[in-house]
């Protein structure tokens, strides 16, 4: 009887050991599967392609809000003494359903830089010198902050103050997801 109890106890302990080892392996296997699944999800989300919401063809920059058509570029005096601004004139046609201010999207989608002494400098929005006479640049700069009704077109301009007079300016065109659409270079001499 004593031997039978010992044998039963040994068999029970053996079964308990086997079941604990099996549970431990199952937990590790489950944990490994979860890690592999989350890793695959992370990889697939990093590979997810977001379609661009803007395009640049020739001088036409199409955005979700409307079409900017660049009509001219030139350099003129800045409001800051000794500095100049690069001006891009454009027409904006509002294709959205609401009124929009073109400059809000112009400066959101277009970023300008210059290379000065080997370093890339971001250019800030420019401003024209104060004048008692109204020039075409003044009128177009003021026009850029007017609201445009849906379906209407407005002539305007945007400008950036040059970090270095005479150095070329790179303008990068982005979409609403801040994906690069195109890059253009403008001479400033």
Write the layout of secondary structure elements.
Layout: H1 2-46, E1 55-57, E2 60-62, E3 66-77, E4 84-94, H2 102-109, E5 110-116, E6 119-122, H3 136-143, E7 153-161, E8 169-174, E9 180-186
Antiparallel strand pairs: 1-2, 2-3, 3-4, 4-7, 5-6, 5-8, 8-9
Question: How would you describe this protein?
Answer:
This protein is α+β, with helices and mostly antiparallel strands. The protein has helices at 2-46, 102-109, 136-143, and strands at 55-57, 60-62, 66-77, 84-94, 110-116, 119-122, 153-161, 169-174, 180-186. The chain is 32% helix and 33% strand. A hairpin with a 2-residue loop joins strand 5 and strand 6. It is elongated, with a radius of gyration of 32 Å. The mean pLDDT is 85.
Structural class determined from secondary elements: alpha+beta
Number of strands: 9
**What is the topology, as strand order, of the major beta sheet?**
1-2-3-4-7
Helical residues, percent: 25-40%
Strand content: 25-35%
The topology string of helices and strands comes to HEEEEHEEHEEE
What is the helix tally?
3
User: How confident is the prediction overall: mean pLDDT?
Assistant: 85
Uncertain residue segments: none
């Amino acid at each position: 009887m004593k031997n039978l109890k010992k044998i039963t106890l040994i068999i029970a302990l053996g079964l308990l050991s086997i079941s604990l080892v099996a549970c431990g392996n199952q937990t590790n296997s489950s944990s490994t599967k979860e890690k592999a699944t989350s890793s695959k999800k992370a990889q697939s989300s990093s590979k997810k392609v977001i379609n661009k919401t803007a395009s640049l063809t020739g001088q036409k920059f199409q955005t979700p809000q409307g079409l900017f058509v660049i009509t001219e570029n030139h350099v003129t005096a800045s409001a800051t003494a000794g500095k100049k601004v690069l001006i891009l004139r454009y027409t904006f046609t509002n294709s959205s359903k609401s009124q929009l201010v073109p400059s809000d999207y112009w400066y959101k989608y277009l970023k300008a830089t210059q290379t000065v002494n080997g370093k890339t400098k971001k250019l800030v929005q420019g401003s024209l010198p104060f004048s008692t006479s109204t020039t075409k640049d003044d009128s177009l700069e003021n026009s850029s902050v007017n609201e445009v009704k849906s379906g209407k077109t407005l002539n305007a301009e945007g400008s950036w103050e040059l970090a270095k007079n005479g150095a070329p300016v790179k303008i990068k065109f982005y979409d609403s997801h801040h994906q690069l659409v195109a890059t253009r270079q403008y001479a400033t001499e």
